[in-house]
Amino acid sequence: MNPIPITVLAEPLNDTMIAVEWHGSNDIRINTKRQKPVLIQPTDAIVRITGTTICGSDLHLYHNEIPGMKKADIVGHEGMGIVVGEKVANIKPNNRVVISAMIACGQCEYCQKKLFSCCDVTNPSKEMDELSGYRTCGMFGYSHLTGGYDGIQAEYVRVPYADVNLLQVSEEDYQTLGEKLVLLSDVACTGWHANELGEVSKGDIVGIWGCGPIGLSAIAWAKFRGASRIIAIDCVPQRLAKAHDFGAETINFKEHKDIVAKMKLIVPGGLDVAIECAGFRYTKTLKQLVEKTLLAETDSTDALDEAIRCVKKGKLESGNFERIRLIIANVPRVVAGGRISIVGVFVGKVNNFPIGAVMEKSLTLRSGLVQVQKYWVQLLSIMKINKVNMNIFTHHGNLEDAGKFYKMFDQKENGVIKVFLRVGDQCKNQHER
């Protein structure tokens, strides 16, 4: 399926807005005279943003670690707001909506299978084709490798394929959840996705590497799904304290240098599931630090290496092979004991990956970008009845203060874990509910 050709309106809109722009490494600027977006395709909608966030993934852009950024690109990929553009099928002006970080067409082979992050239509990047063999979907505010779409840290954003990429929420939803609704753009769905990839179920012992917003979301959903123990690894005291509040046991890797030895001590049989939320920037060993410095690799797998070594081995379990049960019955089958779920961001190549341990221990390793649209209706229902802790925001501010909060978030100052940015009229209030 080929992308719909992009057309340009003959009359550009002269109205301006405030937007957060990328201008290079550690250089985030507020542009108060950015041109507002306009409708380009009949399937577009324009959303007036009422709230957005700074995500841990945005720090990769902040450090110029993601290829394909251009000066003055608008950043940000989580947001909620009110539709102000023309009616698009079921999306109408004045509807409250949450915006998916992942931009899908809804019609291609992958979207039909609910693999929205693999959409074949919304990302025209040839560079992504060359880098990975195939393209991801398009993404808001995340470089030209993912389509070059303007981000959501702005007063207005154009949303392609609005029927697919906007979740309508009611006034009741808004009054009940307030700012937590924006987590359905990415964080809440990614935490659930991490549990889905790891098949976390009742009684499992789960280890989670990284206690940032995604890690905390993964903890919350693991608890909701009935994990018997959740063990979280990080080194930032405020994040570890928050993880403990969410129901996890915690390990500070600066106090316990050998995480594998520590884990064997407290979980002798090994973890059932390990969830990697740290990503390529987590470099712990001198070897990987040197290799990254010498550009011998782009990403570190120190956390993933620990996770692989901490999960239990596979086991034999008697049972029938469903598809051939009429031919062979009661034959032992190998069931993976340890499951590895990877949702931390990785962008390039690594050395010294412990592939032998994955094979020899009969592990299941699964990864992938979040399928936001697959999960968000279900998760909205769960969050509305208050069955899961999503109190992730630690700081609130206005869109105009984004530069200050980027620096604070990057330096892990003042206990910051997740920042909610009020936009437009919402800036006049202290913060949303």
UniProtKB/TrEMBL annotation:
Residues 42-164 form the Alcohol dehydrogenase-like N-terminal domain. Gene3D superfamilies: Medium-chain alcohol dehydrogenases, catalytic domain, NAD(P)-binding Rossmann-like Domain. SUPFAM superfamilies: GroES-like, NAD(P)-binding Rossmann-fold domains. Its cofactor is Zn(2+). One of its GO terms (molecular function) is metal ion binding. The keyword Metal-binding applies. It comes from the Eukaryota. Residues 213-289 form the Alcohol dehydrogenase-like C-terminal domain. Keywords: Metal-binding, Zinc. PANTHER family: DEHYDROGENASE, PUTATIVE (AFU_ORTHOLOGUE AFUA_5G03930)-RELATED, ZINC-TYPE ALCOHOL DEHYDROGENASE-LIKE. This is 10651_t:CDS:1.
